[in-house]
Amino acid sequence: MSTEKKFTDAYYHGTATIVAEKTNVTPKYVSDVLAGKYDGQGFTKKRIATVKKIKAAAENFKRPIAS
């Protein structure tokens, strides 16, 4: 079993498609962003802005964290 973080662990199923429509990017790119692939440094200002926009649009689709 893979230890790779999946964005569906934190977000509802279908989130990538909905957010992709809102932000005009592909669902695969959205799922990569929400999985944390584009977190970090070394990216262009445009990419950083897009990542922030995607994360803001996906905030409403976050799963509640069980405590």
Mean of all residue-level pLDDT scores? 85
> How much is the radius of gyration in Å?
12 Å
**Ends distance:** 25 Å
Broad structural category: mainly alpha
Topology order in helix (H) and strand (E) letters: HHH
In total, how many domains does the architecture comprise? 1
The poorly predicted ranges are none
In DSSP terms (H or I, runs of 4 or more residues), the helix count works out at: 3
Q: What is the helix content?
A: 40-55%
Largest sheet: none
Q: Per the principal axes of the C-alpha atoms, what is the gross shape?
A: globular
The count of β-strands is 0
Indicate the proportion of strand residues: under 5%
Structure notes:
This protein has 67 residues and is mainly α. The chain has helices at residues 15-23, 27-34, 45-58. Helix 1 (15-23) crosses helix 2 (27-34) and helix 1 (15-23) packs across helix 3. The longest helix is centred in the C-terminal third of the chain and has 14 residues, at 45-58. The mean pLDDT is 85.
SSE order and pairing:
Elements: H1 15-23, H2 27-34, H3 45-58
Compact summary:
This protein has 67 residues and is an all-alpha fold.
Features:
67 residues, 0% strand, globular, mainly alpha
